[in-house]
Amino acid sequence: MNLFRTKSIEQSIGDTRESAHRLRRDLSALDLVVFGVGVIIGTGIFVLTGQVAKDKAGPAVAISFVLAAVVCGLAALCYAEFASTVPVAGSAYTFAYATLGEFPAWIIGWDLILELALGSAVVAVGWSGYAASLLDTIGLPLPAAFSDPPGEGGGVVNVPAVLLVVAVAGLLVLGVKISSRVNAVIVAIKVFVVLLVIVAGLFLVKGANYTPFIPPSRPNPSVEGAAAPLIQVLFGITPVSYGWLGIFAAIAIVFFAYIGFDVVATAAEESRRPQRDLPIGLIGSLVVTAVLYAAVSLVVVGMEDYRRLSDAAPLADAFKAAGHPVFATVISIGAVAGLTAVVLILLLGQSRIFFAMSRDGMLPEWLAAVHPRFGTPYRSTVLMGVVVAALAGFIPLAKLAELVNIGTLFAFLTVSIGVLILRRTRPDLPRSFRTPLVPWIPILSVLACLFVMVNLPVETWLRFLAWMAIGTVIYFGYGHRHSHLRARTARRAARDAP
């Protein structure tokens, strides 16, 4: 049983030319950058800023955002080399198949469900909260039973979240180009709102709110046991808020703000010139959003004392507290638009992962069918739409959100290792983009990902290991036995036998 057989780059690229599984190439470099910006600017900028400043980093939350962007940037340089060299749908799953082998590739594909499917469900629930708030503002309140997450405030089913996922899945079935156009409009709205926050907020900043910029650390007794960061448990460090330990703990949380930039790599087969466009999309979107995040976080902690920032809607509530409720309404509209784009792009990425795994036989092959008219993997899109709608509508997700972070970091770590392996095993491959300073950049990326991972709570690690165990059982029960690569290897061995 060879669990580490690799699928050649040539075979991966050859699969994209089969008429039954050929996706339509409609995306430009600008489309990919807009996709990246669209998926990154969301929960992080509209929600996490207040939570992390208040509980972890104080005014220095901007440092946490910048350091999280550095971690993502190191991984982005590795993704850019892989995506331009192996322009195939599947992102980290496909890259792992070419370097680490079939079983690691399956584990990565299973892991990406945490990032994309669970991530889109979590964001859909956040979208529902903003949408319900806006409806209440205009005098159309929704009953709590149909707007709150299950188990919270009498919630039974989160109807707005379900409707959003269904609408987004339908849009994705109609074609990646029409999806990119809708996304471009949404992204324009939310970038305008973000710039409005920065410009308008600058006039309301009070210098006293920045002092001290890095508040002195203090014990945080509310974080203990399984909720404490793994690194603090391993080394017996008392959990703290603020100070540099607070800033580092905040990185593990605000990392969620950047989740999804790697979705750009899942659109490799739908890019017109992937060798050039994918590196631009990956790195360009990350640079733009890192600047915006740092600027917004500096403005919001300057507008209001970080200890009084709202957990649910820090940007909107900061403007309300400053006596500008109109700005608060505009920000809420921007949040609704912004989170819509995030759900759309995360669901796009997840459907492409399922498409790639199904095409390899690791999941039922019927999921890899491409719509004859729209050129989209419609079956995997519909399936994931149903799954995500059910998660968003009926499952309390608050405790599962950090699983999205650890799943993404694990994928980043794998891709970074893969660059080192492929440089050694296939130095002859044409690479239109080369990660600079190899092996140092990939090594730094691995270490940075591990650092952020060990700052996640122990309970997140336990849930992650349980999820990986379930994936292993499914692989040996189905994926291994139905793998096309395994079948080809067996036929070749039978043909070569004396």
Short description:
By secondary structure, this protein is mostly helical. It has helices spanning 9-15, 29-40, 43-57, 61-85, 92-99, 102-137, 159-173, 176-202, 230-234, 243-254, 263-266, 274-303, 314-321, 325-359, 378-394, 401-425, 440-454, 458-482, 484-496; strands at 218-219, 240-241. The protein contains 19 helices and 2 strands.
Write the layout of secondary structure elements.
Blueprint: H1 9-15, H2 29-40, H3 43-57, H4 61-85, H5 92-99, H6 102-137, H7 159-173, H8 176-202, E1 218-219, H9 230-234, E2 240-241, H10 243-254, H11 263-266, H12 274-303, H13 314-321, H14 325-359, H15 378-394, H16 401-425, H17 440-454, H18 458-482, H19 484-496
Antiparallel strand pairs: 1-2
Helix pairs in contact: 2-8, 2-12, 2-14, 3-10, 3-12, 4-10, 4-12, 4-16, 4-17, 5-6, 5-16, 6-7, 6-14, 6-15, 6-16, 6-18, 7-14, 7-15, 8-12, 8-14, 13-14, 14-15, 16-17, 16-18
